[in-house]
Write a structure and sequence with these properties.
By secondary structure, the protein is of the alpha/beta class. The protein folds into two domains: 34-49 and 57-128 and 268-292, 3-Layer(aba) Sandwich (Udp-n-acetylmuramoylalanyl-d-glutamate--2,6- Diaminopimelate Ligase, Chain: A, domain 1); 134-260, Udp-n-acetylmuramoylalanyl-d-glutamate--2,6- Diaminopimelate Ligase, Chain: A, domain 1 (3-Layer(aba) Sandwich), CATH 3.40.1390.30. Helix content is 32%, strand content 21%. It contains eleven helices and eleven strands. The protein has helices at residues 21-26, 34-44, 78-87, 111-122, 131-135, 140-147, 180-190, 222-227, 240-248, 262-267, 269-283; strands spanning 57-60, 69-73, 91-94, 125-128, 151-158, 167-179, 199-201, 207-217, 232-236, 256-260, 289-292. The strands form two sheets. It has a six-stranded mixed β-sheet. Helix 4 links the parallel strand 3 (91-94) and strand 4. Helix 2 (34-44) crosses helix 11 and helix 3 runs parallel beside helix 4 (111-122). Residues 1-29 are annotated as: Disordered. Belongs to the GTP cyclohydrolase I type 2/NIF3 family. This is GTP cyclohydrolase 1 type 2 homolog.
């Protein structure tokens, strides 16, 4: 059977067989290189916004490699990596770093070593967008604030290297006053289901309007929460002593506390981040398929409660 005449000659191709010039444009948007994706990521979530203790950026991958599929996830666990590999992602972007603390070996005898080996052997790059993704406009806490219906949102702490609207945490107002119980139910309703649920400290019938939020662990920001006169503080990983001390220092019971899952509070950002990156790449003429991981990487499986 004769092959169809496409009208493309050898002169229209690179040495590797890909199309050149007008023929490539006519064939549709081209897949970007990893390096080009990194530039798009830097436009959205600049590394300069990361906290000085953080480790963000490219963990594994060659900048010249083509990228046709990108997966977003909260954690670079082995399960998430396998999901990305099976889907055919050439790039996995996670919120949490794989190598936040220094290591002296990436041998496959350790969990982190297995992760690095699987990534490299499968040709899957790994990129971390952590506190730069928290601080940037449209970042983790912005998405959380928007999902809760907050208005007039500003950062709890302004970024040292960013714009006035960039920084860690957000504070804003509800359109209408609500009871703490009803607001806690709203928080519960917007988050993905996890074993730990939502914990609340305060008068269930107390009225609230000014809300502070911080996706991820935020018990270092109580001074900023009080300075912004927040009625409620929504964050994750509230430890006993900081939470107890905050309740002891409360004025008229405020700020009330709502403690949520670390994973759940940051998962909300993933669809928004995937959409934002897709838009930037499309504007640059690139065609990339982007998907959010379906893996629940919250570490807890079930909980027992009184009654």
């Amino acid at each position: 059977m004769e092959s169809a005449d496409t009208g493309v000659t050898d002169a229209d191709k690179h040495d590797d067989g890909t199309l050149t010039g007008e023929d490539a444009a006519a064939d549709g948007p081209a897949a970007p290189t990893l390096g080009q994706v990194l530039l798009a990521v830097e436009e959205l979530w600049p590394e300069s916004l990361a906290e000085n203790w953080d480790e963000v950026g490219l963990v594994a991958g060659h900048p010249s490699a083509p990228v046709t599929r990108v997966m977003f996830a909260v954690d670079p666990t082995l399960t998430v990596i396998e999901e990305a590999v099976e889907w055919g992602a050439e790039l996995l972007i996670t919120h949490h770093p794989l190598l936040l603390k220094g290591v002296t070996s990436v041998a496959a005898t350790t969990a982190k070593g297995q992760a690095i080996h699987r990534l490299i052997e499968s040709g899957t790059a790994l990129l971390t967008v952590h506190t730069n993704g928290d601080s940037a406009v449209g970042g983790v806490s912005d998405v959380l604030a928007d999902a809760l219906g907050l208005e007039g949102v500003v950062p709890l702490t302004v970024a040292a290297n960013g714009l006035p609207e960039e920084g860690i945490g957000r504070v804003g107002d509800l359109a209408d006053v609500m009871s703490l119980g009803d607001f806690a139910a709203r928080v519960f309703g917007i988050l993905p289901s996890v074993a730990g649920g939502v914990r609340v400290s305060g008068d269930k019938d107390g009225l609230v309007r000014r809300i502070a939020v911080c996706g991820g662990a935020g018990d270092s920001l109580f001074n900023e929460v009080r300075a912004n006169n927040a009625d409620v503080y929504v964050t994750a990983d509230l430890r006993h002593h900081p939470a107890s001390e905050a309740r002891e220092a409360a004025v008229n019971g405020r700020p009330y506390l709502i403690d949520v899952s670390h994973f759940a509070s940051e998962w909300l950002w993933l669809p928004a981040a995937a959409s934002a990156l897709g838009n930037v790449l499309a504007d640059q003429g690139h065609d990339v398929e982007i998907q959010v991981s379906t893996t629940n990487s919250d570490p807890w499986d079930f909980i027992l409660t009184p009654g």
